[in-house]
Amino acid sequence: MSINIGNKVLQKLLDIFKINRSQGQVNDGLLIMNNTSFQSVVKEKEVVVVVVVEVVVVVVVVIVIVVVIVVVVVVVVVVVVVVVVVVVVVVVVVVVVVVEVVVVVVAAAAVVVVVVVVVVEAATEAVVL
């Protein structure tokens, strides 16, 4: 069965490339392989395969470059966001410290005012008496 199919394929190739069997020639495969039009078709197919492989390689390289660029951009954005968050935290801490210092100063001033008021009242009472 497979030999019969193989013979039909060989016969079809012989017909397509218009190859005539010479007398005593029984190897159809060699006839086809040595035929110049068959060889030119094979060469064209090889060129197509090489071009397709080169295009695939170029596309893969471009995809890898784009992925690397995207990863670098994402890393840079993450670093910038982290730096901004750190700066905001530092500013908030400084503001909190300044507010605490102001509160302590105001509390100290209030204590001074209370002490002055108490001293003035005591002096006023002492003078009145």
From TrEMBL:
The keyword Transmembrane helix applies. Keywords: Membrane, Transmembrane, Transmembrane helix. The chain crosses the membrane at residues 47-69, 75-96, 101-120. This is Uncharacterized protein.
